[in-house]
């Protein structure tokens, strides 16, 4: 079996890997690192969870360990589709570069970038960016891409879904022809194939098996649910979700709850909050400060329930998530595998529970066909002799009984968001479980000028750099 020490990585990078506790390279790492270190382009067909971030970060750092950055000319560039993924890649860089003297900047939308401007002005070794923000910067004349020696495109298929391919092509054309390119995608759609044929030169193609099966450590279950009346389907489904969460008891330390639609992400989060659950939404339409605050809170254990859309949660690496709830069966069966892969990570146990109403049984069959397994059916924890009206009322917090009934039983014609918002204003919020750890930073002691909304793991690296 390949060992990291066989891979010709820089000794300081090896030391950091050892300290991170990694023993052996994952298949994508064993496949991609050697050609990358030989200076070849790499086409990695792998999805998140396979260790792909380290498969490009480790050779990049080894290649960059020699040489110096020049003003406004980053030596390497990593493009990510979302801000969260960019922040996650930045975190990986910090972990593996801790014994090297390399600088990085993070250019992501939605946060002020005064300090990042200054860093880029001075010269950075690694620039991690979302495509739009990078081009903004370029157009303002703040950045030259002619010094880029290594360029990474991460999650290219997600870039395609999000309409970033023209930006990527433009960025490719702004970097030198002689650059080395690492290109990662979970799938090879024809458009992705075209881009790789155009911009990669005789790449080493490294493919790791598509993750059609979920990790063995994830216990799965599906709760089939039939609404009592069509117009009650949504509120009854939220009630079922609460009952399923309650049935897990203390075993459910935290959970990601996936919804298929952004509007449902908001509604489910509000509804859970109303019933006293510590929940917050994350999806692409929320402003960045809120997204980073929510994600940061979830990662550090202050927030128990993260209600998410697929795009927002894709690729997020939160090591200890005890449960995943699928409020809806995903429309694309592969998304089921991605979703439930947020739990049971790194050999831990995890549980994934899916709510399925009659409309979704076809989608459920598609999921079961993909994973080649029947998902065990769960007892419906709401089994009750009482009519639904009473059950809903009983379950609602007592002091807001009449209002809750009104909202939860809102007729179909009323928009869902309004129904929830109508009660939301009056609901006292559950106090946060513990105050946010700001890592000792006062308001006037900002480290990178990204405001107080920056996830602490990003700040940490800068704090270390600034201190050294
Ligand atoms: P990624 O696919 O890059 O999102 O990585 C998934 C997770 O695997 C991250 O939490 C990494 O820290 C972890 N990881 C990456 N490489 C290794 C390795 N060789 N051994 C153990 N864990 C790893």
UniProtKB/TrEMBL annotation:
Every Helicase ATP-binding domain range: 33-206
PROSITE patterns referenced in this protein's UniProt entry, alphabetically: DEAD_ATP_HELICASE (PS00039), HELICASE_ATP_BIND_1 (PS51192), HELICASE_CTER (PS51194), Q_MOTIF (PS51195)
Keyword ATP-binding among UniProt keywords: yes
Top-level taxon in the UniProt lineage: Bacteria
Residue span, Helicase C-terminal domain: 244-386
Family per similarity comment: Belongs to the DEAD box helicase family.
Listed name of the protein: DEAD/DEAH box helicase
